[in-house]
């Protein structure tokens, strides 16, 4: 069992008052709050270790480089990658996907090749592929989902042809909460030698991820959604792909030798880390991952699932509330609408009472188009949320929904 | 009634509420009084940018007065436009142009609405004043 009250003390921001009320933070799917150890790790770094990495013979630079590579090792172990050079630090998940869309795309995609995504993706897992398809005259194919928010795997299996070059889907939908059948999706793609990228924005903060067991070819992480600092992300890629892919950006660190005529690229992972990376962020991200491990990813996930079922049970009793996303395998987010009200109406009143919920399209407009709605109100959970918070919020939603009937 | 008299009336109406839930309930009720824009005027050209929800605004000029109509898909936004229209509709372009809308701050709307929403509120007021300037121009040509 998690001792939530004790754990909450690790997160200083939770003491904040909003409009004079206690902050109840239900927007962890957008970004999680940071534990004190992560905040301290950043201050510590600038106080004691700061120096550019990979570039100096002097002691501080060596120390800083060591911390950076330690962070890579931590990430490797955290997701159980085979090699630490399969871990590329990026400035976010969006950059990680763009990196693959560019570098994989430039290396492997030809006209009329096909890429498959799902209809429930975040824009970060749609737009880079559309851009790639436009650049290469390739074709984007879409796996649809049903009214409950479950992907249609039969259609998926029919979408794969000998022209398919990549499948890219989210681990968990940030709007519908659907936990997609990733192992099955990967197995089927691999039968046809098609690599799979996983948008893991909603993953490592809720459960233990083992990229070797999943056997995914690429896995992407948003640091700031996993209790780490903003501006950090991770791209995991199997060596066999990363090795063949052309670099994403040119600059320092990604080279072996440069003459004014020609450049030889560095080895993995540096080939994909042009310029001075956010090594402080990487260190803080590793600190966040260690923090998650110290609490226990499974305990966190179970706790969040309890909150989700409680919220679902309470809101289902309200006839004015419609829940979007009723997949049997669901996690961490609850999207809904209140009859007669725009999502922003509800979000605004909730805010006045101290409840922080996101409203809008959640960067997944195709989902809104499917349901023909302007957006949703989204309650999303982190390790620090309590059942009391869920009960209070659902009560408030009941009160608010009466105002609009 | 003059603009400032109406504003003072609204401030007085709001002064009885000590709870934000009551204020919102009142704003929701006001949304039902909004003079709705004609459906054929609900076009891109009349959309106000800068709001999280969709807002349309139109204006007509008759007998030296401007009459505003509007709509929104969000109820609270609709209630707020309804307030703005109460204050500014049926006034001369000159007085709309020069109106100091102190009631917004006085009833707590400006600071209490979320930033995205306040921007929308400002955009709405700007558009209403732009109409006044345009009609004023026509008049004095
Ligand atoms: C499923 C999913 N994918 C991608 C992203 C993009 O993450 P970021 O904007 O941090 O790069 C998000 C963030 O909302 C997300 O929820």
- Label the structural class of chain A: alpha/beta
- According to CATH, the fold-level topology of the largest domain in chain A is Aspartate Aminotransferase, domain 2
Q: Quote the distance from N terminus to C terminus of chain A.
A: 40 Å
What is the class of the largest domain in chain A in the CATH system?
Alpha Beta
Figure out the total of helices of chain B.
7
Lateral arrangement of strands in the main beta sheet of chain B: 1-2
**CATH class label of chain B:** Alpha Beta
Mean pLDDT of chain A: 96
Number of DSSP helical runs of chain A: 14
The major sheet of chain A is characterized as: 7 strands, mixed
Task: Please give the domain count of chain B.
Answer: 1
Indicate the percent of residues in helices of chain B: 55-70%
The overall strand count of chain B is 2
Total discrete domains of chain A = 2
User: Could you tell me the mean pLDDT of chain B?
Assistant: 88
Please state the CA-atom Rg of chain A, rounded to the nearest Å: 22 Å
Descriptive key words:
heterodimer, A: 405 residues, alpha/beta, Aspartate Aminotransferase, domain 1, Aspartate Aminotransferase, domain 2, seven-stranded mixed sheet, 14 helices, 17 strands, 40% helix, globular, B: 141 residues, mainly alpha, Sufe protein. Chain: A, two-stranded antiparallel ribbon, 56% helix, binds pyridoxal-5'-phosphate
Summarize the SSE layout with pairings:
The complex is a heterodimer of chains A (405) and B (141).
Chain A: H1 4-8, E1 17-18, E2 21-22, E3 24-25, H2 36-49, H3 59-78, E4 87-90, H4 93-108, E5 114-118, H5 127-136, E6 139-143, H6 153-159, E7 164-170, H7 182-191, E8 196-199, H8 211-214, E9 218-222, E10 233-237, H9 239-242, E11 255-258, E12 263-265, H10 279-295, H11 297-316, E13 321-324, E14 333-338, H12 343-352, E15 355-356, E16 358-360, H13 365-371, E17 376-380, H14 387-403
Parallel strand pairs in A: 3-15, 5-6, 5-7, 7-8, 8-9
Antiparallel strand pairs in A: 1-2, 4-10, 9-10, 11-12, 13-14, 14-17, 16-17
Chain B: H1 3-15, H2 20-31, E1 55-62, E2 65-72, H3 75-88, H4 93-98, H5 102-106, H6 109-112, H7 115-139
Antiparallel strand pairs in B: 1-2
Helix pairs in contact in B: 1-3, 2-3, 3-7
Bound molecules: pyridoxal-5'-phosphate.
